[in-house]
Amino acid sequence: MTAQAMVAEFDDIAAWTAEAVEHLGDQHAIPAACRGSASPTALAWLAEACELSAGTRLLDVGAGTGGPAAWAAKRFGVRPILLDPMPAAGRAASRLFGLPVLTADGQRIPLRADAVDVAWCLGVLCTVEDKAAVLREIHRVLVPHASLGLLVVIAARPITDPPDGNYFPMQSELVDLLDACGFDLVEQTERPAAVPLSWTRRAQEVTALISARYRTHPAYTLASQQDTRLTDLFDHGHLSLQLLHAVKR
Length: 249
Ligand SMILES: C[S@@+](CC[C@H](N)C(=O)[O-])C[C@H]1O[C@@H](n2cnc3c(N)ncnc32)[C@H](O)[C@@H]1O
What we know:
Bound molecules: S-adenosylmethionine
CATH architecture: 3-Layer(aba) Sandwich
CATH superfamily: Vaccinia Virus protein VP39
């Protein structure tokens, strides 16, 4: 992804999200901080598939503002470690949830081998050109036979004009990649469509406040353009959101 588009989408918006949540209240934090299109139903599917439980060391690679990891900590008592290359996203996550954050690239995870019990990587692989490098690093830091939960935007056909900096894998490519990087795919399902209104309402209130405050900001315009293009691809059936559970061989 180009530096400018990435900073707009994942750094500027993250900082504005934390600011808006602080204004609107803590109950807005998790829905607003799930930026990979995770929903409570999607997160519950991943949590059950990965058999999260109290004390599980969960590494969230590309954690963004930290909504999914915070949800897992609250619901299952896991011990999350967040990793994201965007400094403002990490600052927003620690401001909102007080969780530990590593500001680093998923291609070079600053953890020793066998350091974590489960990894999540939600809405991230489509923004990374070298997906194998990220998957190999996740494989290295997981304990043997550990679970990997993925949320991936998959292309039904090659997308010739994706939003800036997106590299959507096709199904066969993703399956081959997981295998080549040492993971067995256990299960896959389309992200459940149903999202409770109480969740969408809180996320939308945060979005509306950000828009009211920043809609004339160049980063807001850039992020909105990316979003419009993405929505268009979903609406035309070229993209779908898939949940995957894989296990380290
Ligand atoms: C669509 S957001 C998803 C954020 C979060 N996983 C969620 O579901 O709310 C994608 C995230 O991937 C991060 N990202 C992009 N390239 C990355 C890389 N090479 N390694 C780790 N994270 C990366 C971005 O900074 C951004 O926070």
